[in-house]
Amino acid sequence: MVRILGLNISDKSNIDYALTNLYGIGWSNSKTILKKCNIDRLKKVKDLSEEELKAIINFIENNYKVEGDLREILAENIKRLKDINSYRGVRHNKSLPVRGQRTRSNARTKRGKRKTVGALKKEVRAMMEQEDRVEEKK
Question: Global pTM?
């Protein structure tokens, strides 16, 4: 296991894939990092030398915001939107989709489990009517 910027990375994977495990670095950023550091992207993590690892870490620290810093910035941005009561902030507060997606038939993961209003199944209605009859007889 190699540790890069506070994250343990598997020795068996290629370095281009391993860098994508860092929050804030995707495939395109991974390729540019390796190109700038002159490292073959198909090289395994366990085959990297100390100098290559240091070069990667230094390049990422100097040019990218990753992991905790990036998460903190995103959380601050969302908090700012909530504080100024912008439309996007209100949508974040209500746990609804923010970027204009429809919610009438979709957005189940964001809105949560369905809450049926008004309609009951036949079996449930029959049981409720039966309970009402029993109460009326008493």
Answer: 0.69
